[in-house]
Amino acid sequence: MYGLMMDYPLTLAQILEHAYRIHADKQVTTLLPNGTLHRYDYATLYGRVKRLANALTELGIQRGDRIATYAANTYQHLELYYAIPCLGAVLHPLNVRLSPTQLAQIVHEAEDKLVFVDSAYIAQFQALRDQIDSISTVYFGLKSEDTDICYEQLLSDAKPTYTWDIRDENSALGLCYTSGTDGEPRGVLYTHRSMFLHTLAANQADVFGLTEADVVLPMVPMFHAMAWGLPYVSMFAGADIVLPGAKPTSIADLIADTGVTVAAGVPTVWAAVYPELRKRKADISKLRRVIVGGEAMPRSLIEAYEKELGVEICHAWGMTEMSPTGTLSKLRAGHQNLSDTEKWRIKAKQGRPIPGVELRLVTETADDFKVLPWDGETIGELQVRSPWTANRYYKIEPTPEHFTTDGWLRTGDIATIDREGYVQIVDRAKSLIRSGGESISSIALETALLKHPYVQEAAVVGVPNEQWGERPVAVVALTPVGAVSNRTDADISDPLKQYLALEFPKFWIPDRFVFVDKIPKTGVGKSDKQTLRKRLLSAETKEKLP
Ligand code: AMP
């Protein structure tokens, strides 16, 4: 028997319409490249989003077309976040930190029809443009040039009214690429329904907990897993939004000047900004909460924020494939009497699944599959399912490496879960190094290195780094060509770095090259990275492995 309730599609248009009708006067503030603040209200944003939808239609954009953005967190990017999906097209934010070669591959795979470029990135965009020159480009913040389309001109020429018409909540809304373990990009294609449900779940009181009284600063880039859903979560809640633009000179000033109450970003950002915030303690008194994820937030930093600044840290774990929120670490009522040390120990865990997310810990071999207990000690692979988790990658047939036959996503994260449901990530089964909240594929670097005439064997491992979380170190055994006796290590590592820089972004290039006679192997003949990591750590900064 079916119930008798409306079949009301869960779409982004409902979020936008609600934000406009109920919170029209709420503010969107953007830090411009010249250091001034641009402000307007939701009503203005709404009017511009409608014009933008008309302009895109005039440009021939149709339902299902993919439209790329190459942009920082700005009001124009926020307008695109709404206009593109609400007219039925697919928003595809490009990670501006990737190399032009990597991005060109992604743009071609996505078959983007148009790319919107932030003028702050215009110089670095040129190298990509050369590789995707068949795709039309629209620039923000620039006057019209002969061949380029100017964003403001587009808006002022467009009709002001537009009626949204997305009937199927399962239509695609956005496409974000994540780095596969092999370095090949993998597209995650969100739907209106998945993002709507993620928006509701992520804003439960025990999750992000944003209210209409909040002023929200997403430091997480809009190209990283849809800015953790914050553009949608914030506007559904009716919170003011502060966008930091391409190059915020002082995040502490921005927080103080705009009265930010909740900010979100990777640990690297919060580690870097901490001394500045400490100096301006009195001016950042409105800041009540920082949401941190993308990589593990060190316990000492959680303690520093909570004890020294009085700012609550909400440590979250997720993945691009999960829209991205999976767990969030908050203390339970029963923890209030614990010692501070014990509280920070719990908060440094990745947290409990948010409502709607199902987790399991699994150990699996070719002929054995076991779901493991939640005892805080047993270690297994974390698997997940939820209404906002991908069930396959864009244009790739689902494989058992990523998705189980009974419908779970393999996260590639190795974890424990305790009796209260707190997840603690202890390792990563996937060959990815996390640096500043971004993934680096060790396999892709190794494959490239092996093509160099100096390199016989290569293993790239992540070692802990205070500033970035992890940094790659390349361990290399040289060929006779590379091992010419009068060459110094720098004579070899410098050309190897330059060689990798042709293909990979700067932050992928290993900080150090360590040369060995032979790379240690595991029983099945793979590079023994655990041993290498241990040896690198014990050798500290020494250039030779013991
Ligand atoms: P991405 O899809 O780029 O957001 O990367 C997702 C991966 O980042 C996860 O599978 C984890 O390996 C890692 N990650 C995300 N959040 C955390 C966290 N709080 N602690 C440790 N690792 C994290």
Compile the SSE list and pairings.
Blueprint: H1 12-23, E1 27-31, E2 37-41, H2 42-58, E3 66-70, H3 75-86, E4 90-93, H4 100-110, E5 114-118, H5 122-131, E6 136-140, E7 149-150, H6 151-157, E8 172-179, E9 185-191, H7 192-202, E10 215-218, H8 230-237, E11 240-243, H9 251-258, E12 262-265, H10 267-279, E13 289-292, H11 299-309, E14 312-318, E15 325-329, H12 340-347, E16 352-353, E17 358-365, E18 368-371, E19 380-385, E20 409-417, E21 423-428, E22 432-435, E23 438-441, H13 442-450, E24 455-465, E25 469-478, H14 489-501, E26 512-516, H15 529-539
Parallel strand pairs: 1-11, 3-4, 3-5, 5-6, 6-7, 10-11, 10-12, 12-13, 13-14, 25-26
Antiparallel strand pairs: 1-2, 8-9, 14-15, 15-16, 17-18, 17-19, 19-20, 20-21, 22-23, 24-25
Helix pairs in contact: 1-8, 2-3, 2-6, 4-5, 7-8, 10-11
The protein binds adenosine monophosphate.
User: Which strands sit side by side, in order, in the main sheet?
Assistant: 2-1-11-10-12-13-14-15-16
Strand content: 25-35%
Top CATH class of the domain at 12-26 and 42-201:
Alpha Beta
Head-to-tail CA distance between termini: 70 Å
What shape does the CA trace take?
A: globular
Write out the CATH superfamily name of the domain at 12-26 and 42-201: ANL, N-terminal domain
At CATH level 3, the topology of the domain at 12-26 and 42-201 is Rossmann fold
Major β-sheet annotation: 9 strands, mixed
Spatial extent as radius of gyration: 24 Å
Indicate the low-confidence ranges by residue numbers.
Answer: none
* Count of DSSP-assigned helices: 15
- Measured as a percent range, the helix fraction is 25-40%
Q: Which structural class do you get from the secondary structure elements?
A: alpha/beta
